[in-house]
């Protein structure tokens, strides 16, 4: 369809709009769209209401809700291939048909058993299209995705054998193969060598994606093959817990942002009157797209420059909005026609200006800067002067800070980060647990499920080696901000993929490996991890990273640092720090994987 370096977001929209919707419209000029809870979330990540209505959709209804029969109307069912959804689908035609003719698209593979249930039901006579769309994931950025599988840490790390994880691993592998199907990519697959779950997923995924390209005859793979890297969440337990100061990560840390980008915030006007406001921030908001991965103070600067340029370019429109400078009828008509879009863009600017300033105010008022300084030291092993910190001194700082924190989950966040970053002596561990509630102190033992020792054999020491500390100190520029100088581990993994040194970096390829593996390639130099470099000609080469157990928004922001290679990052879910904390606290092998609540999802009506 498009060139190989097209973003995942645009490839996904092409699947929904240019394949599913246009194919349906070729058989029916107007139709109802029926979605279930999870497929609604999938749609909301990439399409707006207007995208659907322009292609023939008259209304969108939820499968789980009671719906009136419309026997003269056609319906497009966009559903997940779950037992619940298929039973409800069959019920729609069990007594009398709800719709005239139907077009069924499943987000993923449907099992033989469920296929038989459909085949032996009354629904068969009404089906005009029946397909697997292979798009069981939600877009969370231009080249970021989530499989929407929260609550799986217990299944991954508390299972006694591979057989107990098999159903979950196969489910993830099937859905992950859909990402590569949409991209038309048949990747080389490698995995974190010291992780059995990562190995299981890599082998299962490789089998599923190869079967996908074999079974779908019109699905042609791109000539250049990317590398798919499967990471286990235990590769870095620290970064998802810190107060990352890039706009998206910090906003979702400090505010509750819905799966659809919906955020509610309080604003105070010039008369000191407070009011509640709502906004939707997603890929259709170009201001958000430009700012999301910028460090928060740089985002403010970029926003101001963009607003200034926008006002200069639309000076006539701004005058019109004030009722000035329009004497000719033609000029007036032209301006009026564009006034709506002009005002909408100004609203975007105003929203982001407020949210950026609000994040910076909270960061300062709640003394997060002090915590952030500790976090950066734990991640790097040194302070802002690039000197190794003394364990006794930082432990004292941490315990004092834990005593000041009043919210339990925030206490656990810092305590778990401490144990993930250092092996504590028995005395230091006791001092740490004495200042937090007993239940949280007990939950700290879950760090051992991720393969880390809970307590060191002797005195407290850093988990990061002196050699690694020296490497990090040598790579980063002089520290000017105490709250942002750590280098995300995922950044180094991407570099290893680009330079063909994954095997030397602790990764193993599944059944097949690239022919040039082992031939080291130079890595483009990035002058700063915080400043985007001037883009050159974009290579068709891709690196796809999937984090089993969930990816943090702090990891997604590294995308801005790679211009020569298309980097795509996804996870079994995406989370902010406190969501990761809750995942750890809720870890249980018996826990059910929850469905998305449809109340948390809305399609973009703009």
TrEMBL record:
Signal peptide segment: none
GO biological process, one term: vesicle-mediated transport
Entry similarity comment: Belongs to the STXBP/unc-18/SEC1 family.
Name of protein: Uncharacterized protein
Organism: Stentor coeruleus
Lineage, opening ranks: Eukaryota, Sar, Alveolata, Ciliophora, Postciliodesmatophora
